[in-house]
Amino acid sequence: MKAMLLKRALQLVTVVWGVGTLTFVLMRSLPGDMAYRIAASRYGQDNVNSDAAALVRQELNLDQSAFVAYWHWLLDLLQFNLGHSLVSGLPVIDAIQHMLGHSLLLALSGLLISILIAVPIGLFCAWRGNPLDSVFMGLSSVIRATPVFVLGVLFILLFALHWNWFPVAGFGTPAHLVLPALTLALSLAAVSNRVVRDSAKQTFQAAFYQFSKVKGLSAWQTFKRHGARNIAVPVVAFFGIQLVSMIEGIVMIESLFSWPGIGHGLAHAIFARDIPVIQGAALVMGMLFVALNTLVDILCLWIDPRGAREA
Amino acid sequence: MKKTLRASQLVGLGLLIGLLAFSVLGMAFSPYSISQQDLNAVLDAPSSAHWLGTDHFGRSMLTRMAYAVGLSFALGVLCVVTSSLLGTALGVWAVWGGKRVDHVLGMMVNILLALPGLVVVLLFAAIVPGSFWILYLAISLVQWVEYFRVVRAITQNVIQSPARQSSEMMGFSRWYQFKRHIWPAIAPSVFTLAAFGGANAILTMASLGFVYVGIQPPLAELGLMTVELFPFYSDAPWLLAQPLVVIALMVFGFHLLAGKRV
Fold first, then answer.
1. pTM
2. Which domains does chain B have, with CATH numbers?
3. Which of A145, A147, A244 sits opposite B207 (nearest CB)?
C-alpha cells in the first residue's frame, strides 16, 4: 500500500515536470509571431497592427530568452501559480476550476450511466448465455466501432433535431446534460460490458463457484459470497485502462456539445494560443489522470486484499 | 509462422480491402478533382454524373470520399508500421539492454502515458496546423508505448526461459534468438495491437478534423467532411451519412481483423 502510494506520488511529480516541460517546449516552438496572434485574439483580426503587437509583447515579456522563461515557468509552477490567461487576462486557476467542475459533472454522470448499463447487461449475458449474449455482444461491437463524435452527431440528429426532446448544445439545465452524458456513457459501456461479461463468465464456471452451489447455497447467496468480489476485480482494474478513452471522449463530447469543460477549454486555448490556459488545462488533465489511477489502485486493493502481499 | 484467419477476421479484411479498392479506383478513374466546384449542381442527389451526389460547393462526393479514405489508410498504415517497429525494438531492448536502459525507457513511457493520447496529439497539431506529417508524428509517438509495454512484458518471460538461455549458451546470435524465441511469442500480440492501432490512428485523425485542428480545407478528410456537411443534414442527409458510415466501417473492419480484444 505504502509502496504503491509512494510510486504514485513520484509519478505525479514526473507528470507535473513532464507536462510542464513538454507544453513549454511545444509552445515556444509555435511558428508565427506570438504577440501578433495574441493581439489578434484580443482585439479581433481586423484591428491588429504592429503597435498593438508590440504593446502585447512588452506587457507579457514575450521577448525573454527561452531559458529564462523556462526557469520562471518552473518557479511559478512550484508555487502553483499558473498565471493569467493571455486573452481574457483572468487568472488561469479560476478558469480551470470553473471548467473542472463542468468536466467532472459530465464525467461522473457519464460513468454512472455507463455502469448502470454495462453491469446488468454484462451479468445478464454471462448468466443467460446465447442467443441474447451474441445479440448484445454484436451490438456492443458495432457501438464500439462508432467513434464518439459520430455517436454524438447521431444523438443530436435524432433526439435534438428530429424529436426535439433535448437541447442541441450548451449547459445550465439538467436537460442539457442528458445527451452529452448519454453519449459518453454508451461509448464507455460498449467496451466495459464485455469485460463484465467475460469476468462473470469465468467466475461462474470456476470450481469454487460450482462447489458453493453444490453445497446448497442459493443462487443469490453464491453470487453475493463468491461472485461479486471476484467479478469486480478485473472490472475495476479495467476502469484504470478505460480512463484514457473517458478523457478523450470528454474532449470530443465537450467540443461537440459546447460543454464548457476542460476539453472544450483546451481546444479553444490552442486556437487562441493562450499558453497559460493550455498549460493549466494539460496539467490538470495529467494530475486528474494520476489521481484517478491512484483511486483505482486503492479500490482494487480494497476489493482484493490478495494483491497487497505481492506488492 | 503459419496463421489461419478466423471467419470474422476474414470479413474484416474483406471490408478493408473493399474500402481500399473503392479509394484507389475512385482516385484513378474519377473525372473530377477534390476541389473542382460546380455551383450549378449543389447538394445533388446521387446521379449518373455524380455517383454519390455533390456537396455544398458542388464538388463530387465520390472523388472526395475516395481521397479521404485514401488519406486515412495512408495515415493508418504509416502509423502502424512506425509505431510497431519502434515499440517492438525498444521493448526488446529494454529487457536485453540491462537495468539502466530499462529505467530510462520506463521513465520516457511514464511521461508519455501521463497525458491521454488525444491531448498529446492536440498539442502537436497546434504547432503546425493542418499538417499530415505532424499528425503522423504525434500519433506514432503516442502509439509506440502500447507495443513497448506489451512486448517488454512478454519478452521478460521469454528471456528467462530455459529454451532461450540454452540457445544463448550454444552461442547463437541475438538476432537468431530474437527470431527463434522472442518473435513467435510476441507476434500474435503485436498483430492484434497493430490492427487496433490502425483503427485508433484513423479515429484520431477524424477526431482532430472534427474539432477543426486536423487536416484543413479544401483537402478531403472524414472528420472534417462531417463538420462541413452537418449544416445540410436536412437538405441532403445522404451526404452527411457518407463520412459517418465510412469512418465506422473502417474502424469496424480493423476491430474485426484484430480478432481478439486487448
1. 0.80
2. 7-40+49-258 (1.10.3720.10)
3. A147
